[in-house]
Amino acid sequence: MRYISTRGQAPALNFEDVLLAGLATDGGLYVPENLPRFTMEEIASWAGLPYHELAFRVMRPFVTGSIPDADFKKILEETYSTGPDGVFAHNAVAPLRQLNGNEWVLELFHGPTLAFKDFALQLLGRLLDHVLAKRGERVVIMGATSGDTGSAAIEGCRRCDNVDIFILHPHERVSDVQRRQMTSILGENIHNIAIEGNFDDCQEMVKASFADQAFLKGTRLVAVNSINWARIMAQIVYYFHAALQLGGPARSVAFSVPTGNFGDIFAGYLARNMGLPISQLIVATNRNDILHRFMSGNRYDKDTLHHSLSPSMDIMVSSNFERLLFDLHGRNGLAVAELMNSFKATGKLSVEEDRWIEARRLFDSLAVDDEETCRTIAEVFKNTTEVLDPHTAIGVRAARECRRSLDTPMVILGTAHPVKFPEAVEKAGIGKLLELPKHLFDLHEREERSTVLPNDIKAVQGFVSSHGNRGKPL
Ligand SMILES: N[C@@H](CCOP(=O)(O)O)C(=O)O
């Protein structure tokens, strides 16, 4: 499998190099040159497989030529293990919970950091370990988080021998539990940086660092955000997993996906292009609604970033939107480069009418504010006694507003555990006390370690280069 850049000017790479690349050298994002497509018979034959075996079948074409089958199988078996010493706390790894009639929540929060990010970052850490050990290479990881990616990346990579990890989060803009999940993991190769800015500032600095890596003095920079193709690849699997449990592929399924960076829903779009019958994909955003503004009015314009009760989606510009633009423009990298350059200069982007109509055909969308989020948490609790986290609640609201057919199962991606967001749960008027799971029971007493830095790329790069070799200068 070869991967090409969405901006058409970077060399094509194999999976191993894409895993280690982050952004392409032309500033684009890597995508498979040709997407594998499965037949209905093939997909149907996967019904009932354990999660790791399904993962092998779905992802194998993406890693072919880079990771030998036997190694990949072993990595997947470890990544999606369950039981007392397993990585995931639920035997089904990603169980479906029925909310009512034909409406289901796909619970993606039974991993170590209680969010869907564990599905990809537990795998990414193991893949990195495998590839870096083989190459005898040490790398620096830089990631930006609005709350969930950070802890999942640290948890996924902390045991990697050859990695120093730097996670940038917006100072005082993530929930208490989210922050502690990152800052209480201590290790000489783990560095949390609280930026005096917002998530987009953090994301911008990470992306800019890929374009200018001299500060790393020859050490390679690797991405843990969904700009890294391996993240998207791993997230495709749970769409197959959910659909197969609900009668797929003979029956199509609809999905509603809370999304900020457009990575999780883009994985669903790819699953559909790979042959999985998906009747509807709903983009569910909070008040930071750049994706909804594009889908509903062809306006992908930067706006002010609002702090909300669903902080993981407090994102102004969605990285993976560029991957969709690439497809909407017939995979013409130069056209995408032109659009992205003009977006950088003006903060505004719209596409030709026929391309936008195509996007409307592919996705429905809704933006949900805090009030409506809390109302949905309360409504679902009243009817089912299930407590939703605010991001999942946004997905439920969007599913209910945008649903096209009551006969088709509707799956809402349950992106995080509500215990991470007590403020929203409390504001929704839910008196029930939510307990942290056993492995995090003392989270609020643990020692925290992080460094506050100004919103200044030179300060960040200076910090990375002076701590990038197990806490020592590079
Ligand atoms: N929602 C994310 C923001 C980063 O997105 P990613 O999917 O590109 O890692 C978070 O919680 O950190």
TrEMBL record:
<dbReference type="Pfam" id="PF00291">
    <property type="entry name" value="PALP"/>
</dbReference>
<feature type="domain" description="Threonine synthase N-terminal">
    <location>
        <begin position="2"/>
        <end position="80"/>
    </location>
</feature>
<dbReference type="InterPro" id="IPR029144">
    <property type="entry name" value="Thr_synth_N"/>
</dbReference>
<comment type="pathway">
    <text>Amino-acid biosynthesis; L-threonine biosynthesis; L-threonine from L-aspartate: step 5/5.</text>
</comment>
<dbReference type="Pfam" id="PF24857">
    <property type="entry name" value="THR4_C"/>
</dbReference>
<dbReference type="Pfam" id="PF14821">
    <property type="entry name" value="Thr_synth_N"/>
</dbReference>
<keyword id="KW-0456">Lyase</keyword>
<dbReference type="InterPro" id="IPR036052">
    <property type="entry name" value="TrpB-like_PALP_sf"/>
</dbReference>
<feature type="domain" description="Tryptophan synthase beta chain-like PALP">
    <location>
        <begin position="97"/>
        <end position="336"/>
    </location>
</feature>
<protein>
    <recommendedName>
        <fullName>Threonine synthase</fullName>
        <ecNumber>4.2.3.1</ecNumber>
    </recommendedName>
</protein>
<dbReference type="InterPro" id="IPR001926">
    <property type="entry name" value="TrpB-like_PALP"/>
</dbReference>
<keyword id="KW-0028">Amino-acid biosynthesis</keyword>
<dbReference type="InterPro" id="IPR004450">
    <property type="entry name" value="Thr_synthase-like"/>
</dbReference>
<dbReference type="InterPro" id="IPR051166">
    <property type="entry name" value="Threonine_Synthase"/>
</dbReference>
<dbReference type="GO" id="GO:0004795">
    <property type="term" value="F:threonine synthase activity"/>
</dbReference>
<dbReference type="InterPro" id="IPR037158">
    <property type="entry name" value="Thr_synth_N_sf"/>
</dbReference>
<dbReference type="InterPro" id="IPR000634">
    <property type="entry name" value="Ser/Thr_deHydtase_PyrdxlP-BS"/>
</dbReference>
<keyword id="KW-0791">Threonine biosynthesis</keyword>
<comment type="similarity">
    <text>Belongs to the threonine synthase family.</text>
</comment>
<keyword id="KW-0663">Pyridoxal phosphate</keyword>
